[in-house]
From TrEMBL:
<keyword id="KW-1133">Transmembrane helix</keyword>
<protein>
    <recommendedName>
        <fullName>Sulfate transporter</fullName>
    </recommendedName>
</protein>
<feature type="transmembrane region" description="Helical">
    <location>
        <begin position="166"/>
        <end position="183"/>
    </location>
</feature>
<keyword id="KW-0472">Membrane</keyword>
<feature type="transmembrane region" description="Helical">
    <location>
        <begin position="58"/>
        <end position="78"/>
    </location>
</feature>
<feature type="transmembrane region" description="Helical">
    <location>
        <begin position="294"/>
        <end position="317"/>
    </location>
</feature>
<feature type="transmembrane region" description="Helical">
    <location>
        <begin position="329"/>
        <end position="351"/>
    </location>
</feature>
<dbReference type="Pfam" id="PF16983">
    <property type="entry name" value="MFS_MOT1"/>
</dbReference>
<feature type="transmembrane region" description="Helical">
    <location>
        <begin position="366"/>
        <end position="385"/>
    </location>
</feature>
<dbReference type="InterPro" id="IPR031563">
    <property type="entry name" value="MOT1/MOT2"/>
</dbReference>
<feature type="transmembrane region" description="Helical">
    <location>
        <begin position="195"/>
        <end position="221"/>
    </location>
</feature>
<feature type="transmembrane region" description="Helical">
    <location>
        <begin position="99"/>
        <end position="118"/>
    </location>
</feature>
<keyword id="KW-0812">Transmembrane</keyword>
Length: 470
């Protein structure tokens, strides 16, 4: 097979993105906004707490969106590093410590990627453990949607305001349920072609939320007065990360397993499952092959933060949840995240920090439902655990290569991984528990095989017990 040079790969990816965008532009635009339920709350909270620079975050995450969309050719999200974000928000960690933590994690991931250790890790981790991480991360998002920062603290009619309460959340949830079959399975699906009707749910929810946020800011509705954004050009400034600070090390240690497992290994497995050759061919009618290796994802995470940390940008990574929800809401190519990246870049360059009040005013009721949708989509990845790889993506699978006992054991390993991840709120604990459970089953297989071989030798007519003459 002829070698594909980097510039050739970029050219193929660009053609693939353009064809997918022309085929179904509404789906790509809607998918671009699918992951805002994860991005907006964390980015706003970090910026308001002084843990990141909002303008630098928008500029660099926009650039990263464009670069990853162009290189990978799939709707690969650029998300906050959640463990670092949670620690920084909860303990009011400063800017230099926060960006240092992201840089430390990225340096380790980049080292693992270039040495090939990430690839070896992905080869030895069994699929049920990967699916368990995806299931646990999805359920974690569902739980966080009901937390105090989103849906948990809403009132029925007037809390935080008449434009952000349980009634709005209920309306958004009903819309989500009613549009379950209005998400395209392929970009070729459209109403005029006889496929299901497509409704850009995430785009509609985002536009409604933006209108509400502008209204709340302009009319000063609610307890806090917000101000509308205004023109303010970005002035980059160098930030010296506190690499040796104990807070940075502590946050990096907590984030490293999450980034390695969910942002690299799990997202690679999900990308290979979602973007099958048949789907890609239907999108662009070409033989484009996206870069979905763990090495590519690991290098991407490493480069992003080792560049952005010097300007106060938020620590970011890729995530299986973001990929799942952007796919759910219509994105099928890198064009979707490139559009989002261009919007981020323009906002960061010309509005910057003045967007803080608008982010604060965005209704939590709508963000919470988007987070809920993201969690459900990611958790549903576990449904294909016992489906052979060659049958994934087909609607009618008649059989499986796994026995009933093997299916039950694989489900147990996946649930053990997800359950421990949720119980301890730590991807590393879930990973270790899943690997131990998987290892116990394999050890039992070996012991049973050895016992069977011994019994076979001791049976009459075998080995030394066999008569010399018969």
């Amino acid at each position: 097979m002829a070698r594909t040079w980097p510039w050739q790969h970029v050219a193929q990816s660009a053609r693939h993105n353009m064809r997918a965008l022309r085929r179904n532009p509404l789906a790509e635009i809607s998918g671009a906004f699918g992951d805002l339920g994860t991005l907006l709350p964390l980015m706003a909270a970090l910026a308001l707490g002084g843990s990141i620079s909002l303008s630098s975050t928008l500029v660099f995450s926009g650039i990263f969106n464009i670069a990853t969309g162009l290189w990978f050719g799939i709707p690969l999200p650029v998300q906050p590093m959640k463990a670092i974000a949670a620690a920084a928000i909860g303990s009011s960690i400063g800017l230099r410590d926060t960006v240092a933590a992201g840089a430390l994690v990225s340096a380790v991931v980049l080292l693992l990627a270039v040495t090939g250790l990430l690839r070896r890790l992905s080869e030895v981790v069994p699929l049920p453990v990967v699916k368990g991480i995806q299931l646990g991360a999805g359920l974690s998002l569902v739980i966080s949607a009901g937390g105090s920062q989103l849906l948990g603290d809403l009132g029925l009619l007037d809390h935080p305001s008449v434009l952000d309460n349980w009634l709005w959340a209920l309306a958004a949830f009903i819309g989500l349920v009613l549009t379950q079959r209005m998400a395209p399975s392929t970009a070729a699906s459209s109403s005029h072609a006889g496929g299901p009707l497509f409704l850009p749910y995430a785009l509609i929810v985002f536009v409604v939320g933006l209108i509400i946020a502008i209204t709340v800011s302009a009319l000063h509705i609610g307890d806090v007065h917000h101000h509308l954004p205004h023109f303010a050009t970005w002035h980059p400034h160098i930030v010296l990360p506190h690499f040796l600070d104990p807070h940075a090390f502590a946050m990096a240690v907590g984030q490293l397993p999450l980034t390695t497992l969910n942002s690299v290994v799990a997202v690679s497995a999900l990308a290979e499952e979602l973007f099958t050759p048949s789907l890609l061919e239907s999108l662009s009618s070409s033989s484009f092959t996206p870069a979905t290796s763990v090495t590519a994802f690991g290098c991407s995470v490493g480069v992003m933060n080792l560049v952005g940390c010097w300007f106060g940008a938020m620590p970011v990574c890729h995530g299986a949840g973001g990929l799942a929800v952007q796919y759910r809401f219509g994105a099928r190519s890198g064009a979707s995240v490139m559009l989002l990246g261009a919007a981020k870049l323009l906002l960061g360059l010309f509005l910057g920090e003045t967007l803080l009040d608008l982010l604060r005013a965005f209704p939590r009721s709508l963000l919470g439902v988007l987070v809920l949708a993201a969690g459900l989509e990611l958790a549903s990845a576990g449904a294909t655990l016992n489906v052979p790889r060659e049958h994934r993506g087909e609607d009618d699978v008649q059989g499986s290569s796994y026995t009933a006992i093997q299916k039950r054991e694989r489900w147990t390993v996946m649930l053990m991984t997800a359950g421990c991840l949720l119980a301890f709120k730590n991807d590393a604990v879930g990973f270790v528990a899943g690997m131990i459970c998987h290892g116990a089953y394999r050890l039992a297989d070996k012991l049973e095989a050895r016992r069977s071989s011994r019994n076979l030798l001791r049976r009459p007519g075998h080995g030394e017990n066999r008569a010399l003459l018969s």
